[in-house]
Amino acid sequence: MADVDVDQWLEGWVENNLTSPGHVEAKAEMRDKAEACAVEATADGISIAELKEAAGGDLEQYLVDRQNALTDMEAGDLSSRDA
Fold first, then answer.
1. What does the pLDDT look like over 52-82, one tens digit per residue?
2. How far apart are CA 63 and CA 77, in angstroms?
3. What residue spans define the domains of the chain?
4. Which end is more exposed in the chain, N or C (fewer Cβ atoms within 10 Å of the end residue's Cβ)?
């Protein structure tokens, strides 16, 4: 895969694969998703080093933070619809 935007790929993966309800409290809760993400990235020609760099060095924590941000956005969308 040539000239892939790893940050964009990772954001797309997050949007397509993080669907856990509610906030995630611990990185351990995201371990399986992080492994799946790494496997897909490798299959798409993205090295683990590139993936970790795009995630700020810690893929599990990145996924926890993104899941929590998505949960917060969804909660905000729901509360604005209820108003």
1. 999 999 999 999 999 999 888 877 765 555 5
2. 21
3. 6-82
4. C
